Amino acid sequence: MKKLFLALALIASPAFAVNPDEVLDDPALEARAREISAELRCVVCQGENIDESNASIARDLRLLVRERLVEGDSNAQVIDFVVERYGEYVLMKPTTEGANILLWWAGPALFVIALLGAGAYLRRRSTSAEPAARLTSDEQARLDELMKG
């Protein structure tokens, strides 16, 4: 049963765009290349990693990753090399250092500011509401007359 489930999962998984001529002969290096490729974003497709993308730049990046691995670079060195060339945008998970800290904290900070603003607005609105003026005796008599119909 587990084998059937595994086979169905493999069939249903997304097809990778890696071409047969890109695959390394060493299975350990190829596994590392796939691991690195999953962490790098295609600069054209924006939502796909370079393993899933059919764009020519993604192919170039896949070849570059494999070339660096064959030369003996570690995974971190390969990623650093690609980031140095293309910028942090190529990372699927951006770092939380430097200017990126603003991006990581901007959402929660704006949410807190919006909550404080909404609270202040509601508080001001509830305290500034004046009670309705009472009806005069003539108005009350007219209302009673209308209500009796």
From TrEMBL:
Which superkingdom?
Bacteria
User: Does this entry carry the keyword DNA-binding?
Assistant: no
Span of the signal peptide: 1-17
List the Pfam families hit by this protein, alphabetically. Answer: CcmH
| InterPro entries with a match to the protein in the record | C-type_cytochrome_biogenesis, CcmH/CycL/Ccl2/NrfF_N, CcmH/CycL/NrfF/Ccl2_sf
Which residue ranges does UniProt annotate as crossing the membrane? 101-122
Which key words tag this protein in UniProt? Cytochrome c-type biogenesis, Heme, Iron, Membrane, Metal-binding, Signal, Transmembrane, Transmembrane helix
Q: What does this protein do?
A: Possible subunit of a heme lyase.
Give the family per the record. Belongs to the CcmH/CycL/Ccl2/NrfF family.
Name of the featured protein: Cytochrome c-type biogenesis protein
Q: Which gene encodes it?
A: ccmH
